[in-house]
Amino acid sequence: MEHELFVCACHNIEHQMVLSYFDDEIDVYLSVHLRKHCFLKRLWIAIRYIFGRQSPFGAFEEIILREEDVNRLNDILSQRREFFEGAEHK
Ligand SMILES: [Zn+2]
Questions:
Q1: Is the pLDDT score of 46 beyond 80?
Q2: DSSP secondary structure code for residue 59 in this structure
Q3: Which domain, by its residues, includes 16?
Q4: Of 16, 56, 63, 73, which sits most exposed with the smallest number of CB within 10 A?
Q5: Distance from the CA of 6 to the center of ligand 1, in angstroms?
Q6: Considering the entire predicted model, what is its pTM?
């Protein structure tokens, strides 16, 4: 299995994702690191959740891709698409 690590352009290693795939399979797996908060922060989030309060943006984190990472991601996905298209014609 191939793994490609992408770290956010802000250089915070809590903002990262790993793209995984097999050379001979179509599927691509995207694993995104979920930041773990301290106990009090998690308790505060849980209390807000119980009462139906959430961030207006939802429970999302983000990762900012640098140009070289965008190119690398594009190369991997293009390679996967070529494999997929090749598999469709068999
Ligand atoms: Zn970041």
A1: yes
A2: S
A3: 2-88
A4: 56
A5: 11
A6: 0.70
